[in-house]
Amino acid sequence: MGRRGGRGRGGGGRSGGGRGGGGGGRRERRTWAHDGRPGDLDGDRHGGEEGHHADGIVLRGHTDEDGTPRVLDLAMWDFAQCDPRRCTGRKLIRMRLCRELRTRSAFNGIVLSPNATACVSPRDRDIVLENGIAVVDCSWAELDKVPFHKMRAYHNRLLPYLVAANPVNYGRPLKLSCVEAFAACCWIVGLKEEAEELLGKFKWGHAFFSLNNELLELYAACDNAADMVETQNRYIQRLQEEAQSRKTMTYNAFTQLGQEEAARADEADDDDNDDDAGDGDAEKDVEGGDVGEEGQEQGEEDQEQGEEGEALEKEEDAEGRELAGEVATKLSI
């Protein structure tokens, strides 16, 4: 009976020789397309020791020294403050386009954080190309529960005024989802195709560009963070002036309508007075007076409706202006 084969020094394991095989089997080091170059599996380049590395969005026209296509590193700190079924960041992770960071993980790229004081700008392009973008997925209402002090983020940035297009917060300023934040940052630093590819993963994604096309182009044309803030504030001021102009026009239209109704009633009253005589004239005068009063009442009612419409519009715009004001103040440089 032959001697039982021993387990070789180099054998065993998932990438060595067969179970119980002889020595000499060399372990293969697995690499991911996301890592860009061999040796980055430990996460040092991308700032984390997570076991899940994403495949990522390929950067057009950018390759590493060995010719490997460079991939945009997208990452996320998730503090479980939103519905995971609706979280676009979680969906990107499932699609292997984004990776999750632990609380104490370091990230050397641009970090889109509500705790930042500087605004992202086209000058951040090189940082994005080299080290990527990360988002802090949290709720504005629960910022006090986020351990920002534990997160090793070296390039914190705020996004400027933009309007959300996601189904949860459609039309609300600054209430962007994770994928909208990633795409906005990409667009601002000049990675427009990458931004479109990201939002193309969502059926509503095109609406974000439709709502914000003018703003995104203005931001992309800026030079630095100061220009970004100035551009944002000019745009917000224009919105406020246009809103005020619409309210004034609405009020004047309702007032004019009421006056026209009253004038038509007065004309009808005059015609009745000319055509009739005696007691009939007196009766018609009363009727004509009633019509005039009805016209005035209709005008007053229309004016009240206009005022109610103004109040409703003011209420709807209040939150957006308040948030915009907060961001404008916070982004002051």
From TrEMBL:
User: Which major enzyme category is it?
Assistant: transferase
List the keywords (alphabetical).
Cytoplasm, Ribosome biogenesis, rRNA processing, S-adenosyl-L-methionine, Transferase
Q: Name one Pfam family in it.
A: Fer4_RLI
Q: What is its EC number?
A: 2.5.1.157
UniProt feature, compositional bias: Gly residues: 8-24
Q: Which ranges carry the 16S/18S rRNA aminocarboxypropyltransferase Tsr3 C-terminal domain?
A: 110-236
Acidic residues bias (residue ranges): 267-280, 288-319
Q: Name one GO molecular function term.
A: rRNA small subunit aminocarboxypropyltransferase activity
- Where is S-adenosyl-L-methionine annotated to bind? 88, 136, 159
| Segments of this protein annotated with the region Disordered | 1-62, 262-333
One biological process term from GO is: maturation of SSU-rRNA
Q: State if Nuclease is listed as a keyword.
A: no
The UniProt entry's coiled-coil ranges are none
* RNase L inhibitor RLI-like possible metal-binding domain boundaries: 74-104
Q: Which family does it belong to?
A: Belongs to the TDD superfamily. TSR3 family.
| Known role | Aminocarboxypropyltransferase that catalyzes the aminocarboxypropyl transfer on pseudouridine in 18S rRNA. It constitutes the last step in biosynthesis of the hypermodified N1-methyl-N3-(3-amino-3-carboxypropyl) pseudouridine (m1acp3-Psi).
Q: What is this protein called?
A: 18S rRNA aminocarboxypropyltransferase
Q: From which source organism is this entry?
A: Salpingoeca rosetta (strain ATCC 50818 / BSB-021)
